Amino acid sequence: MKNEKIQKRIKEKYNSRTIDDKSNFLLKSLNQIIANLENIKNSIISNSEYKIKNFKNNENINHYFDNHKNNEFDQFFIHNIKMNNNKYEVEISSLFNDEIFLKNISSSELAEILSENKLENKRTVFLPKNKVSEIFFDKDLELKKMIINDGQAIYSKDLKLNVFEQEKTIEIFQNSPEDWILFSNVNFEEWKILFNGKIDNNQISNIENINQHGMTGCVNFYDVFFQNTILELKDGRCEDTVNIIKSIGKIKFLKVQSAFSDALDIDFSEINIDKGIIDKAGNDCADFSSGNYYINYFELSNCEDKAISVGEKTILNLVKANISDSEMGLASKDSSVSEIKNIDLLNVDICLSAYNKKQEFYGGLIKIENITCKDFSKKIDEDKQSNIFVENWN
User: Fold this and answer.
1) Bridge partner list, 292
2) 323 vs 8, more confident
C-alpha cells in the first residue's frame, strides 16, 4: 500500500469519481489503511503479542463501535437474550441511543440476526454483555455441560464428547446432523480438536441454518484463546462447520472436509492461521468479517460459492493461497481490505471481486502482489465503490 505506483492509481481512480475533495478524505483513508495493516503485522503476525491477559478484551468491538459512530452509521445491538418457550425476549439498543428496550422475536428472526445481521430490514448485531453460556443455557435440561480449562463446553445431549486432558486432545462425534457444541471462555493453547460429523442423506434437506439455541455452527467457539491449536473437522451438516466469534490467537493447522454450507466462519476476532486446508463446501470455504486476520497458507478447493469471503470492515493479510474448482476466488466487500502476496487460482468462474453489499459500508479493496488465474470466465468483478490492484499477473 506504500507503493507510489499503487497510490497513484488509487488517486487517479478517486479523482475521476469526485468533483473536488477539499477534506483530504483520500489521504486520510490511505493513511488509516496503512496504519491498520501495520497494526496487523505488529499484533497478529507476532505470536508474542498474544497474551492470556488480553483473552477477554473488547478492543475489536470498541473499535467497531467507534468506526460506525465516526461515519454516522446507526444500527441496533442485542445485548441479552432470554428464552421463553419458542420465543426469545431480547434487549436492544441503538448505536446513538443507550436506552434499552425489550422485544419478542421468533427463532427464525433470531436466525436472521445471527446469520445476516438483520432484523425487520434494519441492521442488527448480536453483541452480548454476558457470557453466551449464561444467556442461553443455564436452565436448559436438554443440554450437557463440561468444564474445560476454566472455560465451558455446552453441547447437545446426544453428541459424544471425549476429552483427554493430558494429551490436550478433544474428540467430538455427532450422533445426528443436528448435534452441536459450544466452547466458551476456554484457553486452547497447544490443544487438538477433532470433529466427526454424522451424514444422513435423508435429513439433509430438512436441516435448518440455526438451531433453537442460536448456534449456526457444528463446532462453535466464543471468547476463546488459540495458540498453536489444531482443528480438524469433517462432514459438518450445519450452516457453519466451524464458527469462531470474538476470539484471538493462532491456529497452527486447520482442516475442514465436506461442509454442508460454510466451512469456516470467523467474526469479531483477531486470528492467525498458519496453514489451512478446506475441501468441499456447499457455500463459502472461508468467511471472515469484522476483524483482523492473518493467513500464512491456504489451500481451498470445491467451494460452491466463494473460496475466500472478506466483509464488514475486515482486514485480511494473506501470504499464499492455492484455490481451485470454485465459483469465486476472492471477494472483498463492505469497507474491507484484503492484501495478498501470492495467490494461484484454477478453474474458477470469477478470479477476484470487490464490491459494496450493505449500505452502511463502502466498497472493498484488494491489493495483490502476484496472481495466477487459469480457466476462468471473468478475471475481475469490481463496482464503482471498490478497487482491485494487481502488481503482477502471471
Assistant:
1) 270, 315
2) 323
